[in-house]
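Hi support team,

I'm opening this ticket because the web form for multi-chain structure prediction keeps timing out on my end. I have pasted the exact lines I submitted so you can reproduce it. The total is 1243 residues across three entries, so I didn't expect it to be a heavy job. Is there a limit I'm missing, or should I split the entries? Thanks in advance, R.K.
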Amino acid sequence: MKPPAFAYHRPETVGEALDLLAELGEEAKILAGGQSLVPLMNFRLAVPAHVVDVNGLTELTLSAQRGGVLRLGALTRHRELERSPLVAGAAPLLAAAAPFIGHPQIRSMGTLGGSLSHADPSAELPGCVLALDATVVAASARGERRIPAGEFFASHFTTTLESDELLVAVEVPVPAGRVGCAFTEVAARHGDFALAGAAAVVTLDDAGVVTDARVVCAAVAPTPVRVAAAEKLLTAGLPGGLTEVETAVQDSLDPTPELKVSARYKRRTAGVLARRAVEAALADAEGRAA
Amino acid sequence: MTTSTTTHTIDLTVNGIPRQVTVEPRTLLADTLRTQLRLTGTHLGCEHGVCGACTVLVDGEPARSCLLFTVSLVGRSVETVESLEEPGGRLNPLQQSFQDHHGLQCGFCTPGILMSLTALLRDEPHPDEGRVRDQVQGHICRCTGYQQLVDAALAVSDEDAEVAP
Amino acid sequence: MIGQSTKRREDLRLLRGRGQYVDDLDLPGVASMAVVRSTQPHARILGIDTAEAAAAPGVVGVFTAADLAEINQPWPVHLSNAALRPNEQRTLPVDKVRYVGELVAVVVAETRYQAEDACELVAVDYEPLPGSGHLSVSRDLPVPIHEDLGDNVAAHAVQTTGDVDAALAGAPRVLRETFSINRGGGHSMEGRAVAARYDRALGQFLVWDATQVPHQARALMAELYGVPQDRVRVIAPPDVGGGFGPKAGKYPEEILVPWLAKLLDRPVKFVEDRYEHFVSCTQEHLQLHRVEVAYDDDGMLLGLRDVFEHDTGAYASSLIVPLIAGTTVPGPYRIPALHIEFTSWFTNKVPSSAVRGAGRPQGVFVMERVMDRIADDLGLDPAEVRARNLIPADAFPYPVGLTFRDGSPLTYDSGNYPGLLEKGMAEIDYAGQRERQAQRRREGALRGIGVSVAVEGVGLGPFEGATVRMESTGRVTVVLGAPPQGQGFETTYAQICADALGVDQDTVDVVTGDTGTIAYGVGTFASRVMATAGPATAAGAREVRDKLFRSVAAVLEASPEDLEIRDGAVAVRGTDVAMPLAQAARMSNVGAPGVTMPAGTVAGLTATAYFNPASAGYSSSVQICVVEVDAETGEVEIVDWVVGHDCGTVINPLLVEGQVLGGVAHGLSNALYEESLYTDEGVPVTTSFLDYPIPSARELPRIRLYDQQTPSPLNPLGVKGAGEAGTLGVPAVIVSAVEDALRPHGVRIDTCPLSPGLLGDLISDAQTDAQNEARTEARTDTAATAGI
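Hello R.K., no limit was hit. The queue was backed up. Here is the completed structure from your submission:
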């Protein structure tokens, strides 16, 4: 299980990186944390002719909150999502989901940009950025492009990034007012990829009425999916109670079976997890001062 | 910018000592440590980032040395199990506690576990059982059932003295 | 020193990263071997083109069956059973491959990286044949896996005692159930590993092999190379990264590495990676048991018939796993009539072998499911049904009426099963747990309590040996044929030797697993070493003590009976007269050149003792576990768990606890997590830890241990075996507890492992059934009301 040979490139500026990607196109793989790419290479399931190592691009490590937006550099490690007070304050859903990603030894290296670009539908962060209505910032020698999370994930392990584009940052709207969030998943073992997962973000007005809701399920489709029906129920005040969320999710999904996991398990469990995530998110929001 | 298709010479620090190594781009850190630097305490158990046997500290953070290309570690600091012992080859308190509690059997996974716990104890000298189990969740041990090694870590956690360097 | 929790001396190097596992050995000039493995479950090999690989950078050589015909004769079958049909295995298959992962060719290169690069350049032309990934597919496979056999049956065997037909016909109650259990691989954290160099001066192959059976490996190598056994020296290094059974097998790579080292005139090594462990290291596969049990209205067993099928994979060199599984079924219970029958099937999967438990967890699972079903049928507490049927403590030796896999009658040597169960029920407060269960159920939680009782054949023959030597320094060396894989032999055998010889354990050194240092050995497996090498070590030490005392007595003009070892010297009791051990040893081991030894002294303070037990012994264990199940997700949470075991006399309690705890973890993995899966055609689909979960410290709960010691009469130490004890009862106790938790939903569980996906579906099926029933009843009611 040794990786195949490749040509190694270590750009020192984003500009250099983008020029390389423009030149190498599909031949190149971008190396960030390497926690998904290198296992694939060790199994020789990925055999890139060129590897562009972006770990020298310090500008991709920078994060800052400006106005109502938290901009997270693509090289933000999962450990930073887990531990950073900035993230805990401005994007608490990412902080809540981070402990579910692999193990501490993976989170120390794995990056936000890498996880999103890898686009594993059973991973945690793709669902979270969708639930947060985040924007992915992609750069190429042709210029910069801002992609809403809802348009970023195309299919299993496939995004709408072009081969010459580099994910440079993620912009997350900072919650204003009474916003609650929660993430939950079921995995074979803690830290493994989810068999089903759910994230919820809800906004309450001063009277405690849901004014906005986003419910996302993971590991049930080729991409993370927003469940509009569940969101509508929430903004309609959940006339039939929380179990409606569960049913709405189950009715909306059409998962395909995976190894040791049937489609009906995924559908049912996604509904359960969505209900639990919504319940926890509502409690979280209610706990915030009006 | 650096581009290399054959070999590349880089500087990094290993166990506090500046080292220069010449590697292919594809050479994994674990292999550099084991083969070139003859630090064979770091073991390869799965080579896909799950078992944790190869865990070392990179700039103080536990990381899988089977998932890192050495060439990418220019200027970084790597610590391996060989750095833990005290002068004269004496066991450090964590190592000693592992012996006292029978926290290892075949010993193959142990170096990685020691490195993860070392990182934890530096950050939090007195972790509780939940924190210890969280920290070692990224390690598979087929021999011990973990209980005795968790006890070993907790015994160190209970000590008043600062443990980790 | 026996009975003392001595800390392990091994740890001093292992904790400092100074262990010397095979891949750590410094062998200057060593080349790396990688393997081209079959990508086909079942196919004819039409041709292999190695030209491109041979020309690749760093390649030293590429070898196929055609290149190595000299050593590629069929493997001799060393361990046979009349029921096992001969099936030819060679180091490299000649005409067809029988499983994905089978060796097709090997590449030796300067580095492992280059060897793997070149493997990708070897082109193998296959003619695929229909393959079998399941024993049910093997039944009708058009081309048999071993074509000369005509079908895919590897073995069929029946054992009976009493009249089961009569028992079933006449019993007040009969249950018929089908149970399946799919156990996985060993997954020692170190894979298989072998390194070798050929020493031209000695004319000897020097082989470092991470094997559990160095003497057996030597025998196979010598036979295939056509050289006397002393031309092959196999050393199982003191540091082997776990074994768990699969490393007791023999593998083609072990044959190739030393031979290629000779052929290429440089050291060669092969280190199995994790992918290779999944596809080429032996594992246990599926067993499917069909059980009929007869019992009375009090739940007393009257007879049991178990007809089962076993998946043996592509080759079978023994019947260990099905034989042990079948004879483990009766367990701790009195069963007047038994019929145990199995068919072992070839499939296109990596060959099966013993994995920690070796069929025992399957046997325990079957019997304990039966006990739960009887309890359920009669409305009795599951612990009560077990207690009623246990063999009483005064019934030993207890003949079960079958033959164990060691060939001796299945007769339990000693034990106290009621005592062990009662102690466990007290330990966990069984009655209180039942009350808390009722309370939790009222609160809406699904809590269950499981019980399992198991008997484990251990300490299997034929023999193990030990050489004990008092060196001329006065230190003592114990040489064992059996090698450790983490069990702590260097510590425990020092304890035994020190105890028998009467010296300080710190003055005893233990050397293991080197065919160059002890003539014969069998190996480390089947929880057998303590019960064989233990008594051998004690006997050797006593013999050395005897020689030492006779020699010293002659010089000190004392009687040997008046001597003792005191402060590093042999002393006359009650006096100051003493001779330091080093002096005594020099006297016997070295003497003075050309000078006659004093009369009565013995030359050479060394003794080699072998111990061959009269039969296997039988350890026992009880597990009681409390779980809660999340009915919505199928997740299982363990609330409390006690494990009691009786392995006779305990040499080192700390280490035995470690063995039991590790065994429990392995069992929990079999119960809830790991499962090796194949397509029906035989393509493996779980080939990484991403698809094959092994629980971590997050998944393992705290386990409370208790023990009972019923010494074995079969050996002077009274020891049994503990290495597999923890594993045995775990699939049984977990499934027992989960089924109990789901009783309100009426869920029946006949299989394991229970992944959340499987359990979740079982629960939702039961809920759907219940809803349908309710609906049907409602409709009937409505119809009745309507007067239709």
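A quick check on our side: The first strand of chain A starts at residue 7 and ends at 10. Let us know if the file doesn't open in your viewer.
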